[in-house]
Amino acid sequence: MKDKSRYLLLLLFGSFARSHGVTGGDKGYIQEITGINIVPFMYLGAKHMVTGYDHILFLVGVIFFLYKMRDIGLYVSLFAIGHSSTLILGVFADISINAYFIDAIIGLSIVYKALDNLDAYKQWFGWQPNTKIATLIFGLFHGFGLASKIQEFNLSRDGLLSNLVSFNIGVEIGQLIALSGILILMSFWRKTGQFEKSAFNTNVALMSGGFILIGYQLTGLLLN
What pTM value is reported for the model? Predict the structure, then answer.
C-alpha cells in the first residue's frame, strides 16, 4: 500500500489531454441540434462530470477527511450549487471569461484544498479559512470553466435554458456516480490501516496535480 498516493493520483488525474471541456464529437452534435433536448444534454452533462479530472480531483480533496454522509452531502451540495448556477448564468447571459484563466483558477482550487487537508493555513498563518464558503466559491469558478467552453459553440437559443438545466441535472448525476466510486475506493483504503500513513503523500500528490494544471493553463494563456 506504500504506493497508494501515487496510484490514486494516476487513477484520477489519468489522461491529462482530455481536459475539462467537451469532446469534438459532442461539440459537433451540440452545434447541430435545435430546440429542447433534455435527455441528450443530461447525458452530455453526466459524461462531462465523470470524465472531468479537475472536478474529480477537487471532490477528492473536499471529501478526503469527511466521514459522515451528512457532511459529504453538505459540501458536495455547496459545490453543485456554485457549479450549476455559474454554468447557466455564464452561457445564458453570455458572460465571457478567458477559458485558460478560469481553468488555472480551477487548478488553484485543487491546490487550495490539498493545502487545507495538510493543515497548512493554521501552521503558516494561524488561521483556518471557512471551508464551506471556499467550496461554494470554487464551485462558481468550476461552473464558469465549462461555461467558457460551451460559449465557443454556436448553440441554438431555441430551448437553450431547458437544455442548460438538463445539462446541469446530468452533471449532478455524473457527480453522484463519480463520488460513489471515490467513496467506495476510499472506504476500502481506510480499512487497510494505511490511510493515515499515506494521507500526507496523497495530498502532496493532489497538490502537485493542481500545480501542473495551473502551469498548463497559464502556458496556454501566454501563448494564445
Answer: 0.83
Q: Grid coordinates standing for 111?
A: 491546490
Determine the pLDDT at residue 28: 67
Which 3-state string (H, E, C) describes the chain?
Answer: CCCHHHHHHHHHHCCHHHCCCCCHHHHHHHHHCCCCCHHHHHHHHHHHHHHCHHHHHHHHHHHCCCCCHHHHHHHHHHHHHHHHHHHHHHHHCCCCCCHHHHHHHHHHHHHHHHHHHCCHHHHHHCCCCCHHHHHHHHHHHHHHHHHHHHCCCCCCCCCHHHHHHHHHHHHHHHHHHHHHHHHHHHHHHHHCCCHHHHHHHHHHHHHHHHHHHHHHHHHHHHHC
Q: What angle do CA 157, 158, 159 make, to 5 degrees?
A: 105
CA angle 175, 180, 185 (to 5 degrees): 130
When pLDDT is cut at 50, 70 and 90, the band that residue 24 belongs to is low
CA distance 213 to 70: 31
Q: What is the largest CA-CA distance in the chain?
A: 54
Rounded Cα gap, residues 2 and 30, in angstroms: 44
C-alpha cell at 202: 496523497
| CA–CA distance, 130 with 84 (Å, rounded to integer) | 21
11 confidence band (pLDDT: 50, 70, 90): very low
Q: What is the pLDDT of residues 69-126, one digit of tens each?
A: 999 999 999 998 998 899 889 888 888 888 889 999 999 999 999 999 999 999 999 9
Whether 210 and 108 have beta carbons less than 8 Å apart is answered as yes
